[in-house]
Amino acid sequence: MPHRHHGHPTRRGPHGIGSGERRGSVPRVGDVALRTGEPFGGNHGTSSRGVVAIARGISHAAHRGGQHARTSATTRARHTHHRSGDHPQGRHPRPGRVDEIARSWRLPARGTGRASRRSGSPRSDHRRVPVDGRRTDSHRLVGRRSGSIDHLLGARPTQRSRSRRGVGLSGPRTRARRLDLDEAIIFPARELILGSNVRDRATSLIASEPWGREQWERLAEGALFDGMESWLPWLTESPLLVTDVLPRGSKMILLEPRRMRDRAVDLLAEEADLAKTLASTWASDADREFPRLYQEPDRLLGETRGSWNLIPVADGPDVPLLEASGWGAMGGAGGDGLTARIKQLLADGFRVVVAADSEVSSTRLADSFANAGLQLDLARPGTKPDLSGRGGIVVVAQLHRGFSVPSARIAVITESDITGRRTSHRRPRAKRRESNTIFEDLKPGNYVVHYIHGVAKYEGMTKMTVAGVERDYLVLAYKGTDKLYLPSDQIDAVRHYVGGETPTLNRLGGGDFAKAKAKVRSAVRAIAQELVVLYQKRVNARGHAFGSDTPWQFEMEQAFPYVETPDQKKAIEDTKADMERPFPMDRLVCGDVGFGKTEVAVRAAFKAIQDGKQVAVLVPTTLLASQHGNTFSDRFAGYPIRVEVLSRFLTNAEANKVVAGLASGEIDCVVGTHRLLSKGITFKNLGLLIVDEEQRFGVQHKESMKHLKNDVDVLTLTATPIPRTLEMSLVGIRDLSLLQTPPADRQPILTFVGHYDERVAVEAIRRELLREGQVFWVHNRVQSIEECAMRLRELVPEARIAIAHGQMDEGSLEQVVLDFWEGNFDVLVCTTIIESGIDMPTVNTLVVERADLLGLGQMHQLRGRVGRSGQRAYAYLFHPRDKSLSEEAYERLRTIGESTELGSGFKIAMRDLEIRGAGNLLGEAQSGHIAAVGYDLYCQMVTEAVGEMKGEPVREPSEIRLDVPTTANLPKDYITKEESRLEAYRRLAQVTTPQEVGDIRDEWLDRYGPLPAPAEALLMVAMLRAECHRLGLNELSISTSQARIGPLDLKTSESIRLKRLNRDAIHKEAARQLVIPIPRGAEPAEFLVGFLRELVIPDDGWVVDPNTAVAGK
To answer: In 10 A of CB 26, how many CB atoms?
Structure first.
């Protein structure tokens, strides 16, 4: 089929390539280019040490711009500045002002455009914040409501809200208020501010420089687009260098000036090459001198102001130096060797400082030394330890490595020196705002399934007034001209349709969907029976009930160098709880790459080993086996645990020793490939099997796994679960844990999907080399991989290029990967062998030549190999120009291009199911049934059938029909985005307790400001729905003077209470209906909530089964 176009070809700037403009919005992190025209050539604006170069094609992240502004502001107030070879000397606009919000400011009424201050005035470099919700030169006001301002910060990826309680700080994802501030200083997120002077300058360039007309017009209109900083030399009269804004008399520290000069020369050369190449493209004079973004290094290095040069110092007799030496392996804290070494240092007059990572560790180390006969002082928490004098002391200090300085008689020993583990200390990860559904949010044009009325097409939301009451309705188009206007409070009745093919719409009220459901319900009984047999086998199997956590378990977990995320902590707790049950565990941990799945496995393995059991970790590739082997060994260092790796990297003799160790029980944990599944591999006491990336194993391997799984706990880790595994987890046969919180500072990967462009690919390599990074180049054909590498060597001669693929001999492959890891090569031309688990933080550019031949899960895994540090990463997924894409290939590429949000692996797995069709994955016999009702409803029906066969009460879904004559909706001027309103309605429709309603109300107050009357009424209706859920009611209608609710049975005591509360109320026992008069002037929903809670007093956590509908049973 012909390739469809998305978007428009980009135009290149003189210093790079700018992507499409987004009028009226701030560029979003992780924006996607899916185009068939000229692709963008991503700017790699950050150096290897996090220093930002001026953007050349792709603007750096907003918080980087904020860091620049903050640094510039503080630099002007101080007198010392340092520059290094990683920090190129580019032009900057003249220093702008930053914004300040202070508690003393007075916010105007809605519609006015200025804020005033009660007393005093802002500093000269600060700007008052307009509050009319528009974008200003230096910032973007996200939301504005009475008494509140939301402002996306450039300095840090957080959000600050000014309200009547002061200036509050909240995360843009969680929206939860964490603290109150009296003042917030807001720095601009961009280095090029499109003020009136810049826009006027761009307008004049339209006539004088017509070759760049398109860019000038966009800038003149104030449109923000990636790479706009590339045009800075054209738009400012005299751009400044950073040194130009330093106060008079400032000192400069030059770190390695020679390296600075070399790096600046490289940048200037690259800029000149780009200008020359692009001049012909735009029919401009090739010999013409373009304004330069970067300046000659002599302008900086030739400054006459005072400066200090920091360069490597040559050793010599006249240079006074303090010589420090590091430690080798020292052994555990209680070891004889370490104790003897410290005693010798003390005897030699050294002051010995033992640096522990935490208070827990410091106490443990001091106790361990005491047990070994060595008394060391323990520094009290919160006090400054005395490091002078003699003797030994244990302090809390997070140091990676220790050292000794003999001339100063001081020795520092870190916890890493003792345990052999290198720790990394980071702040807690940012918490993602949790979604109430694991499926995609509704978008106009999506096919949906209403669980009563069937398959329809969602056309959007509309506001309607019915019987004098205004509400929002979802418009669902059915077969023919039938349309269903679904009240927004019933949005939970709708699910996104996933079935593999374009579905047939049902006729509204025609009965065809009811027949289809009945047919599917009959068919799923066979599936349910199979699943129940598997479940019963697992539950009835005699497994090992592991004991509670030991002190060593606590100690090992405390050594984890990161802060666990809430969902990671829950996954760990659930896994350990499963292991302590008397039947075998079968848990699936699904989380995106780098989200902490391995740590869940590490802790489970340690727990198993503590009970005397062996652990087998099964991985799909030899490279991943080596990496996991290192990870487990590092985490278990300092404990009497033996970890070995079994893969083809081992010689026959080495492999035989590992096999013998497994049989004898000498090896506690083995990490291996499918070699572990070979005949002849026996375990003395296997207790836990960990399977990483299950989808990479074939059918035969999975059959072999069954022999290992008998009576053994199984923990499966995956980023993109295969649909069969997903199905079993969703219906409850396998336990499921989702990790949805990304690591701190992790940025979404900027992804390009398009035709192969050699110039863009080469440019990407060069830009990565400029920031001293590395590149994965995926060429998935072993036969021609050498030719590919030779071509790249010709195109990028300065790059050091290596080759890696699965058909290489073990020693060569291992050595190449090790050399690449150590930075001896810049580009690794490889097959998809890197797909699973390879963790190389310095690799931040990925190029895939034939992405159209890869599966969706494969592309997601490959993309996950880059961007594993705080650096911005780039993925180029190419397909040939001369080949038409199949429908499936096009959909795969479109999905991977759109799914750039962190944590999108689960969504991709669901989309993969939709693209490939359920029949290919779950069996052709069920494909027609899934197509009839959608995968979501199909899984729900299987769950019901499984529950029925297990003897569990099954509740047929039923609507709670509320007819409340009140204007209850979310006004557009309160929540402007339709998708945000849709999400809010979805959350409200799913509430089951008053506490949930209260939480939503608090979030709206903090996120959007004081609630308008329709929103307050909507929350009260939600509260009424929660009461109906508690009492098992499915119908409630309110007229002018009374309310009818049912079905409801009352106990004798409740009937007596009814008459006491309202003697005019009538309970019709036969009809199971309650009629309640509503007092004149009362708000109906609020009155009924209070009345029902008094009538049927709720118990904590008590919910009545709707099928019995008998209050109190």
So the answer is: 16
Q: For 355, list phi and psi in degrees, rounded to 5.
A: -100, 115
CA distance 851 to 34: 13
The dihedral over CA atoms of 962, 965, 966, 971, expressed in degrees to the nearest 10, equals 70
- Alpha-carbon span 844 to 365, nearest angstrom: 39
Over the stretch 592-646, which tens digit does the pLDDT of each residue have? 777 788 999 999 999 999 999 999 999 888 878 888 898 899 889 888 999 999 9
Q: Residue 92: beta bridge partners?
A: 240
Q: How far apart are the C-alpha atoms of 203 and 217, rounded to whole Å?
A: 7
Q: Which residue reads 């399934």 in tokens? A: 449
Give the H/E segment covering residue 392: strand 391-396
Residue 70 near residue 187, CB atoms below 8 Å: yes
Distances 66 to 13, 347, 820, 930 between C-alpha atoms, Å: 24, 53, 34, 50
β-strands 643-646, 669-672 pairing: parallel
Per the listing, tokens 């904590």 go with 1100
Nearest Cα residue to 1096 out of 1107, 1088, 1084: 1088
Domains of the chain and any CATH numbers: 11-90+195-301 (no CATH), 98-186 (no CATH), 336-419 (3.40.50.11140), 541-739 (3.40.50.300), 750-901 (3.40.50.300), 961-1095 (3.90.1150.50)
Structure tokens at 34: 């899916």
Q: How far apart are CA 1042 and CA 1021, in angstroms?
A: 16
Sign of CA dihedral 186, 188, 194, 195: positive
Structure tokens at 232: 């800075």
Which strand (E) or helix (H) includes residue 172?
none
Beta-bridge partner residues of 462: 473
3-class DSSP assignment, residue 604? helix
Buried b (16+ CB within 10 A) or exposed e, 134-156: ebbbbbbbebbbeebbbbbbbbe
Q: What pTM did the predictor assign?
A: 0.57
- Tens digit of each residue's pLDDT (9 = 90 or more) over 769-819: 888 889 999 998 899 999 999 999 999 998 999 999 888 877 788 788 888
CB 1046 within 8 A of CB 1035: yes
Q: In one letter, which amino acid is 979?
A: E
Q: Residue 1032 carries which side chain, given as an amino acid letter?
A: G
Q: What is the DSSP letter of 212?
A: G
- Bigger pLDDT: 31 vs 61: 61
Cα–Cα nearest to 675, from 692, 694, 651, 655: 655
- Tokens 């830009």 correspond to 767
- On the CB side of 165, CA atoms within 13 Å amount to 12
CA 731 to chain centre: 26
- Token pair of 89 as six digits: 């000397």
Is the Cβ–Cβ distance between 527 and 731 less than 8 Å?
A: no
Angle at 482 (CA atoms; ends 476, 488), nearest 5 degrees:
30
Handedness of CA 299, 302, 306, 308 (dihedral sign): positive
CA quadruple 770, 773, 778, 779: dihedral sign: positive
Token reading at 693: 């990336």
For residue 242, what are its two tokens? 């950073």
Question: 109, exposed or middle or buried, with CB in 10 Å at 0-12, 13-18, 19+?
Answer: exposed
- Ramachandran region, residue 264 (left: φ > 0; alpha: ψ -120 to 50; beta: rest): alpha
pLDDT score recorded for residue 800: 94
381, 363 in Cβ contact below 8 A?
no
pLDDT of residue 547: 92
* pLDDT tens digits, one per residue of 417-451: 776 655 544 444 444 434 334 334 567 888 888 87
Q: In sequence order, which ranges of 934-1012 are alpha helices (DSSP H)?
A: 935-949, 978-989, 994-1008
First to last CA, the chain: 62
Lookup: tokens for 893: 């590429």
- Mean residue pLDDT of the chain comes to 71
Q: Are strands 166-170 and 177-181 parallel, antiparallel or unpaired?
A: antiparallel
